[in-house]
Amino acid sequence: MSLPSSHLRPELAALAPYNAGLTVAEVASRPGVSRVAKLGSNENPLGPDPAVRQALEAALQRIAIYPDPVGRTLAAKLAARHGIAADRLVLGNGSEDLLAVLARAILRPGDKVVTLYPSFTLHEDYARLMGAEVIRIGLTPEGGVDVEALVRAVAQPVRLVLFANPMNPAGVWLSPQELGRVLDAVHPEAVTCLDEAYHEYAEGDDYGSGETRLSTHGGPLVILRTFSKAWGLAGLRVGYAMTNSGELKRGLDLARTPFNVNLMAQAAAEAALDHPGSVTVAAALVRRELPRVKAAIEALGLRVLPSKGNFLFFDAARPSVELAEALLDKGVIVKPWKQPGYETWLRVSIGTEADNGQFLAALSGSL
Ligand SMILES: *Cc1c(COP(=O)(O)O)cnc(C)c1O
Q1: Of 58, 96, 195, 264, which is most buried by a Cβ count within 10 Å?
Q2: CA 350 – CA 308 distance, rounded (Å)
Q3: Fold category of 10-47+277-364 in CATH
Q4: CATH assignment of 50-274, given 3.40.50.300, 3.40.640.10, 3.40.309.10, 3.20.20.140?
Q5: Which residue's CA is the nearest one to ligand 1's atom 12?
Q6: Which residue's CA lies nearest to atom 6 of ligand 1?
Q7: What separation in Å is there between the alpha carbon of 322 and the centre of ligand 1?
Q8: What does the pLDDT look like over 289-311, one tens digit per residue?
Q9: Taking the domains of the chain in order of start, what are their residue ranges?
Q10: Torsions phi, psi of 328, nearest 5?
Q11: Which residues carry this modification: N6-(pyridoxal phosphate)lysine (predicted)?
């Protein structure tokens, strides 16, 4: 028996490299760039609470030993914060780790996965890696979540319903009523995973988090949250899953690597949770700056979608990759979208006032 010519699984051939964007160092070395505004990855420009630094210094004493494989202290703090049992929580090396773990735990070749489009690409990639088929529900012509199409799709016998709310990159979101309709329509045997990476920015009466449904939803439900966005810990990689299903909790634990959240990350997240005021400050910055940036982009004649995240998605009406390149020459990192139908759209994070000003000046000078 001979092996196929490539050692790679055929599922990998269909995947594109993750569109991670450039680092500050890469852009700072460009001629003429004196200041870099890193607005491509939705990080919190204010960083975490200062207590995190102290916790990391203390944790340095312990780096010769393995971390707690289940993060007992962190899980207990999260359980208390959310009013759920610690044995319904799974920690991840970022929530993207949990997306991969969930896919490994439940998806079989040929399974169907429903997601919203344009999508957070990892929602699709890990599904395809497992041999599953991705069903995309696009936006309405007005640029909103197509709740009707989503309700129809999730009622089918699919394995997994997985989408971000607010959506990334689109920024649009489901209201509590809309989310309720979708969850009520989900096929009884499907797993639902709501990726709430931007929850801390979106919180409010018109935003529907799945958290309140953990105690009432009939089917298996997973809610993903992360310390990478509003909590300001993207470099340390910590996310978590909350679930109403003991079976899924067991499956996720079996499918993850045993020490997936490192010791420094656990210490930082614990300290961050003890000092949540920095999240309020980060959310207030976005609430102040996002409407200003949105109005300024619109004033240039471009279409911008509403957003409850710390970012905006806009149609530049020209190839996004070329515009992003022109912005790089002015020290501004944004994310040009590349998925079919959105090749003229870009996603820009809300940064500090200075970052946002630099972006708006660069944009108006590049059109
Ligand atoms: C940023 C982001 C994540 C990734 O978060 P990590 O916890 O850093 O892995 C997950 N989902 C969505 C929708 C995101 O935008």
Answers
A1: 195
A2: 11
A3: Aspartate Aminotransferase, domain 1 (3.90.1150)
A4: 3.40.640.10
A5: 197
A6: 94
A7: 25
A8: 999 999 999 999 999 999 999 99
A9: 10-47+277-364, 50-274
A10: -60, -35
A11: 229
Distances (CA, A) of 218 to 144, 215, 221, 243: 27, 9, 8, 12
Residues 187-200 pLDDT 10s: 999 999 999 999 99
* CA 88 to ligand 1 center in whole angstroms: 20
The single-letter code of the amino acid at 303 is: R
Nearest CA to ligand 1 atom 2: 197
- List all residues whose CB is within 6 A of at least one atom of ligand 1: 42, 94-96, 120, 164, 168, 195, 197, 226, 228-229, 234, 239
If one compares 1 and 254, the residue with the highest pLDDT of the two is: 254
226 Cα nearest atom in ligand 1: 7
Do 37 and 355 meet the contact criterion of CB atoms below 8 Å apart? yes
Q: Which of these ranges, 22-36, 95-109, 113-127, 259-273, has the smallest mean pLDDT?
A: 22-36
> In sequence order, which residues have a C-beta less than 8 Å from that of residue 306 and are 6 or more positions away?
143, 171, 172
Supply the pLDDT for residue 57.
98
Interval between CA 96 and ligand 1 midpoint (Å): 6
The label of the residue with tokens 């569109």 reads: 19
d(C-alpha 238, C-alpha 155), whole Å: 32
Q: 59: CA distance to ligand 1 center in Å?
A: 25
Q: Tally the residues of the chain.
A: 367
Do 10-47+277-364 and 50-274 fold alike per CATH? no
CA of 67 to the centre of ligand 1 (A): 23
* Residue pLDDT, tens place only, 165-180: 999 999 999 999 999 9
Confidence of residue 1 (pLDDT cuts 50, 70, 90): low
Residue whose CA lies nearest to ligand 1 atom number 5:
95
